[in-house]
Design brief:
Elements: H1 3-10, E1 29-33, E2 48-51, E3 56-59, E4 62-65, E5 71-78, E6 83-88, E7 102-112, E8 115-118
């Protein structure tokens, strides 16, 4: 299940595929995560989440606001308190500076909106 996670980890600071966040998507649909972290017990490292358009959560970058097209992130670590480490790219509104994989943290207990969970393989 760690395929997407391994791909992203191996490319921190570099661009994967087109540089769009969807270059990190993969795997079978497993379910969903709701606002405030509802469903967090379904999550494991290596899974990919597609954050729904308009979703947001608090993290190391302040408030992470998802655009109208949604956003894919790869879970690197998840803790019972709702905090997590993730990998993503295309995080600066499409600018070339953001089209590189980065590591950041967040808290699913602050999630507004929802996300679709994928296996990540």
């Amino acid at each position: 299940m760690l395929f997407r996670s391994q791909l992203a980890q191996a490319n921190i600071g570099r661009t994967v595929g087109s540089g769009d966040c969807s270059a990190l998507k993969g795997g079978a649909r497993l379910g969903s995560l709701g606002g405030g972290g509802a469903g967090i017990d379904k999550l494991a490292p290596g899974m990919v989440l597609r954050l729904s358009p308009g979703s947001s959560f608090s993290g190391s970058m302040g408030r992470f606001n998802v655009s109208s097209s949604g956003h894919y992130i790869v879970l690197e670590a998840i803790r019972p308190d709702g905090t997590f480490t993730f990998l993503d790219q295309n995080w600066m509104g499409g600018s070339s500076a953001g089209r590189r994989v980065r590591r950041a943290t967040g808290n699913f207990r602050t999630l507004k909106g929802s996300a679709t969970i994928y296996s990540g393989d």
